[in-house]
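Input/output pair, single chain:
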Amino acid sequence: MLGDIDDRRKSMLSAVLGRWIVYKDSWPRLSSLPECDGFWGCALLFKRIRFLSTKVFFVTVNLFPCCRLVFVVLLTASFAVSQQRCAAGQRRVESPVEFQRVVKEAKPGDVIVIGGSDWVDKRLKIMLAGSAEKPITIRSEVTWSGKSAFEIIGKHVVLDGFVFKDGGLSSGHVMKVRGSHCRVTRCVFEHYNPAKRSARYQWLSLFGHHHRVDHCRFSGQDHSGCTLVVWLAVDGESEVGQHRIERNHFLNRPRGDGNGFETIRIGTSEHSLKSAECLVSENLFENCDGEVELISNKSCGNVYAGNTIIGCAGALTLRHGNDCRVIENLILGDSDENSGGIRVVGEGHQIVGNHIQGVGDRVDGAIALSAGVVNAKLHQHAQVRDVLIDRNVLIGNDGDEIVWGHGKGSHNRTLMPRDITVKNTRRVGQVALRRLRDGDVGPEAQ
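Output:
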């Protein structure tokens, strides 16, 4: 082939080949391109590629004009890939001011790491949006204490590793998540209590829709307010609920002195006929004694499945709302005489495949069907109707297996449950459901 090229082109080609031998070992591979920050970082990277290829490009296109288009395409593709790698980076911050600045510059796919010394008395509110394909991650490596609190209005944002410990507020929310498609994962809320137990605030509040809370630990709450609450009344929100709360560890909540000490609440009585469609699954509850409503359902269409509840002085309570499913939960009294099973109010629920063993008389039995009020208002007890109770295992519980008309006679509650189907109840046998343990849930779980 070289014999067909004139002397000038031969010498040029020889120069190219010689230059290639010099540069070939330093030619940047796409797999080893350095991380860069922003437009100027990308420009410098492209300049390096252009410098190394300049002589090869210009000499070769003179030798072989047909290669011009190929070189243009290859260089354009290389720059596009380089720019894509630069678009998503990791930024480390060590102060709230620096954090706020980086948040304003963040792009889909970015990772923001909060490091340095612990943050005390820091109250932050941010707005941030990633994408379904490239969520933005905020990873905290510090402990938040004092009066610290965090609020986000976001879409497709992951909050990873936040630790709130040994602090306390007077009102509001320790962490407040608004927007949609955010994830709270591997976070810890521990002993974040005020000086006065009567101070009411929530540890984690979810507004908006399609959030996920997983592998978190909530421990030692002793004041008024829910540990985790889903809110359905949000101005301007056309879509709410549809959250997933899974593989979390709730533990060691001492008994409160009235209402408002729930561990989980989904909805409120005022909006209890709204459809929330949340999934609460595979969580572990241990020694959560806050009040009679360990879990307080106050909305429609929710599913409680595969949870393990051990030694909790309360019941999984469908307090308001309709059409919920309580499926394959393991509830063990663990010698707590105040422990409870499942309490039901409303219509269209399904209580299927649960194992309830050794619970006390907190709700007078294993499964309590409440008495209702005639023409009940939203905050009152609606009549229990059209409920399926199937394939439950009830062993060694105080009180009745099924309590008919729990609370009848109090607060004008006179309506007995109706159209109830109870079948396939078992009273002996080993626990067939999976019992979740520490290693299965919380931040340390695999």
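Confidence is low (pLDDT under 50) at residues 1-5, 12-64, 70-87. Residues 88 and 115 are 19 Å apart (CA to CA).
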